[in-house]
Amino acid sequence: MKQRVQEMEAEAAKLREMQASLDAQNRDLRESKEDIDARSVFVGNVDYGASPEEIQAHFQSCGPINRVTILLDKFTGHPKGSVNAPRVGLSFYT
């Protein structure tokens, strides 16, 4: 019986360690996402036929852009006419 209790305590300690590790990873991911969100730019009224390459070329004079995401209607798959563009630096806002 004592051996079983010790096994359960060891397993509980292992689970606490795993939970602490996952909490740390989630915190890092959340901070990373917040950092990306802080550097992202939302652009509305974008031509429905515009490609990500055209949009990136248009905003290239503002500085380097990581990626361009054209928002799509989830039911039809057609562009919504808006774009999210995370930037490398913050100089775009000045």
What does this structure look like?
With 94 residues, this protein is an alpha+beta fold. It has a single domain (2-93), classed as RRM (RNA recognition motif) domain (Alpha-Beta Plaits). It has two helices and three strands; from the N terminus they run H-E-H-E-E. The protein has a three-stranded antiparallel beta sheet. The longest helix has 38 residues, at 2-39. The protein starts with a helix and ends in an 8-residue tail after the last strand. InterPro entries: Nucleotide-bd_a/b_plait_sf, RBD_domain_sf, RRM_dom. GO terms for molecular function: poly(A) binding. Residues 5-35 form a coiled coil.
Kindly summarize this structure in a few lines.
GO terms for molecular function: poly(A) binding. 49% of the residues lie in helices and 17% in strands.
Topology:
Layout lengths: L1 H38 E4 L8 H8 L9 E4 L6 E8 L8
InterPro entries: Nucleotide-bd_a/b_plait_sf (IPR012677), RBD_domain_sf (IPR035979), RRM_dom (IPR000504)
Keywords: Coiled coil, RNA-binding
Pfam family, one: RRM_1
**3D shape:** elongated
Strand order of the largest sheet: 1-3-2
User: Which CATH-level-2 architecture?
Assistant: 2-Layer Sandwich
Kindly identify the CATH topology. Alpha-Beta Plaits
Number of strands: 3
Class derived from helix and strand content? alpha+beta
Low-pLDDT parts are: 90-94
The largest β sheet comes out as: 3 strands, antiparallel
Mean pLDDT: 83
Number of helices: 2
What is the first-to-last residue Cα distance?
68 Å
Rg, please? Answer: 23 Å
Order of helices and strands: HEHEE
Number of structural domains:
1
**Beta-strand content estimate:** 15-25%
Helix content: 40-55%
CATH class: Alpha Beta
CATH 4th-level superfamily: RRM (RNA recognition motif) domain
